[in-house]
Write a structure and sequence with these properties.
Belongs to the CTP synthase family. The chain contains 16 helices and 17 strands. By secondary structure, it is of the alpha/beta class. It folds into two domains: 232 residues, 3-Layer(aba) Sandwich (Rossmann fold), CATH 3.40.50; 241 residues, Rossmann fold (3-Layer(aba) Sandwich). The strands form four sheets. Strands 2-3-1-4-5-6 form a six-stranded parallel beta sheet, sandwiched between helices. Helix 9 crosses helix 15. The longest helix has 17 residues.
Length: 486
């Protein structure tokens, strides 16, 4: 097993995640089996459950190392083959107090797995003040010095900068950071993040890993990287636009929906459209806002109605108020007996609880009650749009994260009105996928399909939304779920 540790300095949000995923992409293009680990350096321990014989601090570094080695060997490919390379992104900034146990763990780890199996990439910032236009190396020097003082020596220093790194600046970093000039990699701002793997490959990163970690890669042309370049080129040439209204309760911080936005971007790129996301606070669409702030209310509805498609993150009865409201509001509109339709989270005494706590958990108990991880969803209809978008599979396995679910006792009431539960769990007890009959594309899922979306392989539910938004869904389905070559 080869390990590549990615650390960061100077500021948070420097781009460690993009560097880590880019390194993984170019190594996969070489025919290697690659996995990845993301570490957020926080230690959350409930001291109230400690045994008097337990002391976390002396053993935490061993626990971190054991966990990394265990996770690194879990296959992430369809063929089930054990990974050959593990790219580890260590969150935070070198010097932060919360990352210290992890830095120390990896200082020890490099000796445990031997030098030829461990490599450190340090991502740093090269600021360029507008007053002088000069690229400054001092922050990087200080960051590398601190990292080396903690026992880790960077093998590659990846410099985030606005413009390409000047030769003199690269040589200065090489001299004061104790690396060869070829080990200083420029990662300047590019038109699309999809160009970053190509940028690294052009600067000989693969050749360095082959020499440093004794990797044996395929010598034939890398088909995956060729596809990646084609995708990056298409991304730069997009002319047509598609707008999606994203309705949620955390829209003031777009990072809250990062995975969702990326899944939308993947799908938009696949149909050669540039994505425009219109963020709408769900509270602004409520009748109370009309009374209190009518301008905000009408602006929110105008944005919603002028969009090509609408997305409500959270599915149809899962995580967050906005997801539950889809099922609840639909039920309220059907007939008089369902006017009090609600969620047990909002009203435990509701006579028609459309959304309920999962029965195996205690209502109101929050800690450790999530239904997490990959779960299987069985398709119950041969003609459903979602099944066709998934390629006609009998079942799909997607990642879940929810505490509430649609009440299965009300299933028949929904289906008699055209809201079909076309996907259920293996036991047939949990409603996983809904589709509204006669609608262009009104679907909801219990799981989080954005977590498995990839640039070259977009998530089917999101892909269907973008196809419907540009009026191409029916032709796509009629052609056997194939896009035209153009």
């Amino acid at each position: 097993m080869k390990y590549i540790l990615v650390t960061g300095g100077v500021i948070s949000g420097i781009g460690k995640g993009i560097i880590a995923s880019s390194v993984g992409t170019i190594l996969k293009s070489c025919g290697l089996h690659v996995t990845a680990i993301k570490i957020d350096p926080y230690i959350n321990i409930d001291a109230g459950t400690f045994s008097p014989y337990e002391h976390v601090v002396p053993h935490i570094t061993d626990a971190i190392q054991e966990w990394v080695m265990k996770q690194a060997r879990i296959s992430v490919d369809d063929d089930g083959v054990e990974p050959q390379v593990c790219v580890i992104e260590l969150g935070g900034t070198v010097g932060d107090i919360e990352s210290m146990p992890f830095i120390e763990a990896f200082r020890q780890f490099q000796f445990k797995v031997k030098r030829e199996n461990f490599c450190n990439i340090h991502v740093s910032l090269i600021p360029q003040p507008n007053t002088t236009g000069e690229q400054k190396t001092k922050p990087t020097q200080n960051s590398v010095r601190e990292l080396r003082g903690l026992g880790l020596s960077p093998d590659l220093i990846m410099c985030r900068c606005t413009t390409p790194l000047e030769t003199a600046v690269k040589e200065k970093i090489s001299m004061f950071c104790h690396v060869e000039p070829t080990q200083v990699i420029c990662v300047h701002d590019v038109a699309s993040i999809y160009r970053v793997p190509l940028l690294l490959e052009e600067q000989g990163v693969v050749s360095y890993f082959c020499q440093r970690l004794n990797l044996h890669v395929e010598t034939r042309p890398r088909k995956m990287l060729t596809k990646w370049k084609e995708m990056a080129d298409r991304s730069d040439r997009l002319l047509e636009h598609v707008s999606i209204a994203l309705v949620g309760k955390y829209t003031k911080l777009s990072d809250s929906y990062t995975s969702v936005i990326k899944a939308l971007e993947h799908s938009a790129l696949a149909i050669n459209h540039k994505l425009e996301v219109k963020y709408i606070d769900s509270a602004d669409l409520e009748s109370t806002t009309l009374q209190d702030e009518p301008v905000k209310y009408h602006e929110a509805w105008q944005k919603l109605c002028s969009s090509d498609g609408v997305l409500v993150p959270g599915g149809f009865g899962v995580r967050g108020t906005e997801g539950k409201m889809l099922a609840i509001n639909w039920a309220r509109k059907q007939n008089k007996p369902f006017l009090d339709a609600n969620s047990t989270e909002f009203n435990p005494e509701s006579k028609h609880p459309v959304v309920i706590d999962m029965p195996e958990h205690n209502p109101g108990q929050m800690g450790g009650t999530m239904r997490l991880g990959k779960r299987r969803t069985i398709f119950k209809s041969n003609n459903s749009v979602m099944r066709r978008l998934y390629g006609g599979l009998e079942y799909v396995e997607e990642r879940h994260r929810h505490r509430f679910e649609v009440n299965p006792e009300l299933k028949h009431h929904f289906e008699t009105k055209g809201l079909q539960f076309v996907g259920q769990d293996e036991e047939g007890e949990r409603m996983e996928i809904i589709e509204l009959e006669g609608h262009n594309y009104f679907v909801g899922v219990q799981y989080h399909p954005e977590f498995t979306s990839r640039p070259i392989k977009p998530s089917p539910p999101y892909f269907g939304l973008l196809l419907a938004a540009v009026g191409k869904l029916q032709s796509y389905l009629a052609k056997g779920c194939r896009l035209s070559p153009r």
